[in-house]
Amino acid sequence: MLSRLVLLRHGQSLWNRERRFTGWTDIDLSFQGIEEARDAGRIMKGAGITIDVAYTSLLKRAVRTMWIVLGEMDLTRIPVIKSWRLNERAYGDFEGRSLDEAEELYGAEQVRRWRKGFLHRFPAPSSESLKDVQERLLPLWQGQIAADLKKGRGVLVVSHGNTIRALVKHIEEISDQNIEELEVHTASPILYELDGRLKLMKRIDL
Description:
- Helix content is 40%, strand content 15%.
- It has seven helices and six strands, in the order βααβαβαααβαββ.
- The chain has a six-stranded mixed beta sheet.
- The model has no long low-confidence stretch (mean pLDDT 96).
């Protein structure tokens, strides 16, 4: 049985626009982010993608993106599951600070390692590494999302940049080193076709 999964990062948020670390801070979409979400929904509908169940985080920028996308696809009555496990990576005290400020204080290369590395955490209490994000995410994947996919349901996951990176790393079996190069753009759908064991058969960037 072929399973289809779509991963989607939320549209641009107000703090994305200002180049601020957002994390678990509940920031809404910008006007551009709303338009990006609409475009994503239209692209998915035009590609003939069928979604039977949608997953998202507890944060409004992802939730709003999901509802905009489902609205464009005429799928607002499908089941929706919200989970904290899909929340963005926590940055601790860095949340709200600008990327430019952090680079000025610590150097661009050091900040890049904190942002992109698999094992690195920002030097702040309650901050998470990408590994931490993957570890809190995988129980949801293994316990619910995988079960839906194995039943042949089309699944949409609308989440955040680092959460999507953690999922992509798991699905594509990307190494700890190579994940540093992965960029996930706002509201750009990634379609996966998976076999019955949820092994990757094809990735399509829509």
